[in-house]
Design goal:
Layout: H1 5-19, H2 31-36, E1 38-41, E2 44-47, H3 48-60, E3 65-67, E4 72-74, H4 76-85, H5 87-90, E5 96-97, H6 101-106, E6 122-123, H7 125-128, H8 132-145, H9 154-173, H10 184-206, H11 213-227, H12 253-261, H13 269-282, H14 285-297, H15 304-319, H16 321-342, H17 345-373, H18 381-402, H19 407-426, H20 444-476, H21 482-518, H22 526-546, H23 552-575, H24 589-607, H25 615-627
Antiparallel strand pairs: 1-2, 3-4, 5-6
Length: 641
Amino acid sequence: MKRSLPWILTGVFALWFLSTLRPRATGEFRFDEFGRLPVVFNGRHQPVDSLARNSLVQIRDRYTVRDTREKRTLGASEWLAEVSLKPETANDRKAFRIDHPNLISMLKLPGPTADGIEDGKHYSWNQIAPSFEEIDKQARRIVETKEDESQRDAFDRSVLKLRNALMLYLRLKHMAQPRDTTDFSGDLARLTEVLPAGVEAARNQQNGQPYNTNAFETLLGLASRMDASVGLEPPLILPPYPPERGRDGWMRMGEALMAHVRGAPLPPSVPHWARMTDAFRAGDAAGFNAAVDGYRRSFGPDLAGDVRKGRWEFFFNQMAPFYDALVIYVAAFLLALFFWFHFAEWARKTAFALIGLAFVIHTAGLLFRMVLEGRPPVTNLYSSAIFIGWGAVLLGMVLEKFWRNAIGLVVASALGFVTLIIAHNLALGGDTMVMLEAVLDTNFWLATHVVIVTLGYASTYVAGFLAIVYILRGVFTRGLDEATGRSLARMVYGIICFATLFSFIGTVLGGIWADQSWGRFWGWDPKENGALIIVLWNALLLHARWGGLVRERGLMALTVVGNIVTSWSWFGTNMLGIGLHSYGFMSGAFLWLGLFILSQLAIMGLGLLPPQFWRSHRTSAAAAPATGAAPRPLPAGAAAR
């Protein structure tokens, strides 16, 4: 049974992953097909589902909305359908998350209630909208008086986040129909009917001639509602018309309607959206589904690529490969720890198989993103976290193939999990497939630079976490015997050599790219300095080891510092807000970076404790007289300086 247990458990997780690929039931309304429709937002062609998910995560920090009254959960596409097609219903959904108690108090919002309708964190548009002017006033004050983001406290950040969420919500509300519309098809019919007489009346009114007052006022009322949404810059949902406008000629609904008022032909996609809207408002699932299908079939061959990309990106969103891999990494980590305490070989083999499965899913997600973006694997902070985790897992699996003691498994699963958690939190900022800076537009030298230098980050982290394993096992457990200590030392040494090589080559390639992009090879930019510090620190470790300045224990303490150096180069330089590489600022990450640095300093301090404070040393020293052997002075060769 134990021989087959690794295959059984791995098969269970594989079936669980495959089950996530099955189409999900969405009720009578086919929100899955609605979610596959292509749109353009922030310069990127994407499906409605991606627009909904990226918007909802900025508003609520989740990809779903919980209906506390109906006791059900709305998916992102269904929520966006409500927001854009029937906003009066969406306005009552508690989609906005507010965490700061002072902001909740300022807006006079209710606290938690016994019936669970109010949880004290999530509120609806209708609850917040009466205070919109006050929120806008506070946001303007913060931006004007505290231009430097480092000066803003938690309350300031909460106000700005809420205002941005409200503005995004307004843009989504006005993306599919004119303001205050209850009968979109009827409005189009009235517009067609009154347009000739209304245009003539408007012309006569401007020339001071008698005009048809009724036609003029009717056209003016329709046009004002249609034009109201244009200034908000909602997503572009209408394909190019006429087709000669090209792939970049997508239009906003308000722009198309106002152009029609001025005499341009009405795009044929507008009636499809009108029927879609009216059917959804009436609760007509069959009519809604037919309108969605009709709209999708109306796309010409020139837009087949957008339709295909929308369907594949929708599939990628539903697959959620990085979340699935994260869950499997956790299971593998627990099994690897179980092996350490019980030496059950089936646990080690199962952990290795699970990490292999998670790595395949991780790789599939990475490749999927590359194809969807048409770019190399690293383009922003989010993708760098994904790639660093991927490289760390690969190195950990290689280590496990040589040293079958589960150390490589612990490092691989832990780093895979941590980096994917970091990526998840980075995704809370919105769309992760948008390039952060125009200067990062891909060329050969940039692609090779970011890939290689990120592999240097990954390998430095692997070495650092191996050192953490050495120190923690040595100080707190009896498991750091001499053989294990030597194995860990060889692992760390080999990985540092690998990290030094890749960090150096990646830094040089970055200079070549900078010379082509900015006209100088090196400018002492904070990001460049951070990359150089990683190279110098790894070189220092190697020279300290070669010169006999440190032994095993000293090497491990210095290697832990490498985690601090790498984290500063990866995240810290962006937080300075200066330099050509300051394209990933995240004010909320400063606290976590500080806590991580403190944790690494604490671990390094443990590594520098005298040997008699190490539990592994005390155990081996106590056991030595019983065997008739002289007691060893240090654990696992830890007689380091």
